[in-house]
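Notebook, p. 212. Picked up where the previous page left off. The plan for this session was modest: take the two constructs that came back from the sequencing core last week, fold each one, and keep the raw output in the notebook itself so nobody has to go hunting through shared drives later. Recording the first one now, exactly as returned: residue sequence, then the structure token string.
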Amino acid sequence: MGRVEDKIEYLKSSNILDDKKPYFVPATNFVRQKIHHYAVLVTYPVTSSFVPNIPVDREKTLIWVESGGFAVSPPLNYRIVLRRQLRLRPDICLTLDQNVKREDLTIEEANERIEDTIKNASRALMFKDEMRTRYNHEFELAAVIQGYNLDTVEWCAESMKEMEFKYYALGAIPTTSTRDINETIKWCESVRKIIGTDSWLHVLGMGNKNILYYIKEYIDSFDVFIRDPFETYPKRYNDTIWNPQFTPDRYAKQLPIALQ
């Protein structure tokens, strides 16, 4: 195993984590205070003149780094994205995705964005070994999966799987209406089948514990933006969805239908 895999195994086998999944990752661009969680997703851009000191115990913290805030305007040089991400000495870098949830996009434009997301993942793999050597830092890539319906999510996931990623992050999750939530369950179930049980699946921006209760068997981790790195809410949140007596409130009657 490599450095990142060793770190994950250490976190799982130590007292830092228990056996519960999904694991909570606080997403933050506010890292001036000490963060006491086992993992963090850094979301803000790093310019050439600003290299933040992430206030975590690096031996006990899995550091994920977002991609969008680290990008440059097209034409894209993917080395720049990775170079900016690597200034934080992360464990896992998310590949650069294109948001497809904008209402002003046509179907053709949304499909082009998914194609760009797939191409960016390929570019990231192309430069991975080069950047590892240049910065003398071992890291892993997480392929970001985008889509606006089940078919396009499966298309993107299958394309990423063909590139043999170990880590995946599912974005653009619908979480508003009951219909959308049922769709979310289908997305997570389908992506898990595509990438297999040995791969890591992270869900981006998932903060609804009612939904998490139903998708927890398909995912390994999720993130939610929190303003206070000291708050104990994440642990309570994770404990809640794993409590056998927990019953989702608002969607308790509708959601089980999606599982049948």
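Okay, moving on. Second construct, recorded in the same format:
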Amino acid sequence: MLLCAQATNRYYLLKVFMKQISEYFFTVLDDQGVKILLSLGLILLFIISASVNLPLAFDGTVPYDFPNYFFGGKRFIEGRPIYDYLESEVFQALGWHNVVYPADPPFTVIILSPLALLSYTQAWIVWALISTILFLVSIFLVAREFSVKSSTLLLTLAVALTAKPFRFLLFTNHFETLVLFLSVLGWIFLRRKYERLGLFMWVLAASLKLFPLLWIVGSVRLVGLRKVVEALLAFLLIFFVSGYFVGIENLKTFLFEIIPRSQLWYGVIANYSLISFGYAFQSKLLAWSLELIFALWVVCDLYAQKRPKIDFQWCLITIESLLLSPLCWWRYLILVFPCILILLFSKESKSASSLKGIVAVLALLIWGWPEIINTSNHLSTVVLSFVPMGVLCCLYLFTRKLALQRTLISVNERDFL
């Protein structure tokens, strides 16, 4: 009993401390001048970082994944097999050796193939600009839904622009900003009761990157089973029609070679999924146990709760999809930026200042945590490098807490009436 009382007292003191710190922090940030100065400083930091790092990337001398899109699209336009290794083509065009291969669904290959009509450097710059615009527009649209002040909006955009996941995405020139944009559009349409249109945005996202299929399945309590089934059928239609256009052999290669090949990345330190976490400890049992337990938890939680608010449900299914997907790279974490904004700006969180303070700390961890932390000890390397996965788990728990509070309030109001 004494130990329980001491633990309760310490938890209460910690909660009070976090509340006081967060109130002071947000009071300081509420000053318009402070917000503008911070925004300008962060934008300057982004410009310096971009001027130093981006020239090393767009000339093709850094072996990252943009060649997969460029040469994969080139093969599609020329009617050649898409999913073979690109080593010889990359060496002939760019002058460096790297074993890369297209690994994205046929729909992605088709959508990005126009880039192959440009030179490699031109294509790189064009997509980097498009990606930056999509990212900033996505963050702007989320913030606008909560009617934030102009100075707060500017600071939000500056913080997002300088966050490590986006800077890493821009340096490697991946296309997940398009997935983010479609995710945000789907959420906005669902908020405005355009349910089929919202789900269709998520169908397009799933056609680009398969794991957003979990967004569609996870929205069953929001839109009903019939609309979810319609959305899944629309996904299958887009998937197989795009497979027909790239060629049946390419489609078979993607299904039976490329997807199974993703196992090569299980246990890689920069892959923050639950499966990868278990494999990093060299334990398949741990990996699949974590995956199965969390999947069962998600299913039970999904069907046990009342109709959730779309804001929180969107956050939950986004985080769930990242944890359950076998691949969750550092750049994928841009997809949780809207979740952080919802936790900070929604009316449900305004009364929970201690929670907002914790969310702000978690956001800072995502903002600047290194992709990989190498130490002399494998255990500490894994634990420190997988901190972003821990952040995802914490954000999930806090979002679920707010969602449950909101559901209980709604039930009590209905009972009272």
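Notes on construct two before I forget. Residues 39 and 155 are 5 Å apart (CA to CA).
Flagging for discussion at group meeting.
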